[in-house]
Design goal:
Length: 248
């Protein structure tokens, strides 16, 4: 049974980003100290941008950090909609991380080929056991999606593949196909943080955390790591429809 998720509320997005950096660096430093490495799957979208930019100033042992993604849009890496491009612009191009530690999803290959390539790469890195990321960062869409697990998508119920391609033709934008880690892989993670800001996410947060169990409609409900810890790191605007457990 997955432990209850923890909720941590910051007053506004800037202090939220600072808290997220604190969680990241504490987890990274502990894993590097304990086992010499730290594997993290980054979220896409706009919310994590400030966190990534602040993270670039952290004196971490980046040579021990391996960066993956929880999802990617099927566009070239230099495209403005690329999740890799955003992380590269504000974080990866500013830190001394070896190129071999950056495990990009090849969105340009398309959803089917791109997903197959990423799954093969994960097998190469983690072996044939389910990938157990030290940390997975996720966002939340106003429709209750996370990563590229959208309402009504077969990917939400995927329980065989580690990575799948997603055909994406209806909002939310961008209306491009995707590659996404599946719930199977997400739920093997040791630590998951949902980073959520803004009043436009308040209803989705309520549906996911307090609503009926309907993962087809609210896919973020599928994220229930078996042995991992889940933290909802949110600002007060996103939390306005749920009871704050820990607040600023
Ligand atoms: C993506 C993301 C997606 C994102 C949410 C929230 O590729 O779009 O991974 O799951 O986290 O849609 O996006 P915002 O942070 O832009 O609101």
């Amino acid at each position: 049974m997955s432990p209850e998720p923890e909720i941590e509320i910051a007053a506004e997005p800037h202090s939220l980003a600072e808290r997220a950096v604190g969680h990241f660096t504490r987890m990274a430093e502990k894993n590097i100290r304990d086992k010499g490495s730290f594997t993290v799957a980054l979220a896409g979208g706009a919310t994590p941008r400030e966190m990534y930019a602040r993270l670039a100033a952290q004196p971490l042992g980046w040579e021990h950090v391996h960066v993956f993604w929880s999802d990617e849009r099927c566009v070239p890496p230099e495209h403005p909609d690329s999740n890799f491009r955003m992380a590269y612009d504000v974080l990866l191009s500013h830190i001394g991380i070896p190129a071999g530690n950056i495990h990009r999803m090849t969105g340009e290959a398309g959803p089917v080929e791109g997903a197959a390539r990423y799954e093969t790469m994960l097998h190469g890195f983690f072996g044939d056991r389910l990938p157990c990321f030290d940390f997975v960062l996720l966002g939340l869409g106003s429709d209750g999606h996370t990563a590229s697990l959208f309402p009504g998508s077969p990917a939400v119920l995927e329980d065989t593949h580690w990575v799948v391609g997603v055909t994406h033709t209806v909002p939310p934008s961008p209306l491009v196909d995707r590659i996404t880690l599946t719930p199977l892989t997400l739920n093997a993670a040791k630590n998951i943080i949902f980073l959520v800001t803004g009043e436009e996410k308040a209803a989705a947060m309520h549906n996911v955390l307090k609503g009926p169990h309907r993962p087809d409609a609210f896919p973020a409900q599928r994220v229930t790591p078996k042995d991992g810890h889940t933290l909802w790191l949110v600002d007060s605007a996103a939390a306005k429809e749920i009871t704050p457990i820990i607040g600023e």
